[in-house]
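Subject: Predicted fold for Urea transporter, 327 residues

User T.R. writes:
Posting the sequence so we have a shared reference for the thread.
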Amino acid sequence: MPSSPVPSDSTGQAPNSEGRSGLDHLLTIPRGIAQVDFQSNYWTGLVFLIALFVGGWQFGVFALLGTVVATLTAYLFGVSWQKRVSPGLEGFCGTLIGVSLVLYLDIRWMTVALVILGAIAGSVLTSAMNVVLTPYDLPTFTAPFCVITTVMVIGGPSFSRVWAEHAGSAPPSATAPGTEMTWTYFWKGAFNGVGQVFFQNEWYVGVIFLIGLFIAGWRIGLVAFVSSLIGLLTGWALGAQAADLGAGLYGYNSVLTGLALFGTFVAVSSAGAVFAVIGTISAAGLTAGIGNLFEVVGGHTLTWPFVLVSWVFLAAVPMFNKLKRAG
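User M.O. replies:
I've generated the structure tokens; pasting them so everyone works from the same file.
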């Protein structure tokens, strides 16, 4: 399958089919899952889905639910099939809404209902944000997911049927405080930083996600892993809690930022590499700030650091003569 840029939110493997075959409709779902990491390669999406099921059947099921509902909503309202729906650009925020809500609210019918409503709202918000951001040549990234999930977890405690049985989400450092880095924390944190993009904190699940990224391209996998390491090392240098570093909590926003700023939206170059490294460091540093800001509602950082840093860095690109946008 030829590699070519996919409009707006991703680059990666473009769909084979020009039409709307049944297979193309079906493959839209794994592409949507892969687009969480900016890939439209359905093999990558299938590997990601396997990783989610390895992490827990509920993550796989709710990721599928969110992706299908968000994609179907966009399709039914007439969003461009070729430019947006088929490459999976309308599904990935639904993926993250499904995974995050089952993590925070546990496995219940109420969670099913909220994922469906959240994915529909996320689809509408995605289109609204595209209208606002496209004139500035900025993608929505995962901002619709961040907005919808943040609103739900802030409002959740007001509704007993939503919050009464919600799952605890305290960081690992709550039970294992300390800043002393160990080898175990280090190597697990490097892989967990990749997995935490999907809220997974088992290192072997992160390895499966990394395999999916290498399927999309060796550079993509390498950038993701190096970005995770940069986020981890930034947190360690600043004195973050070692258990949180080992869980990948300082790596995943750096992973997304590195992928966005090196090859996906900014052209590959030596200056681009330096630019991306600065971005990944910034995302890791902002992680603690956003977490503290949201501490009153459980400290749900989500992917806000990645979104905010990447918007700022992409907006700055036209001012730098040694950088240029990809594509």
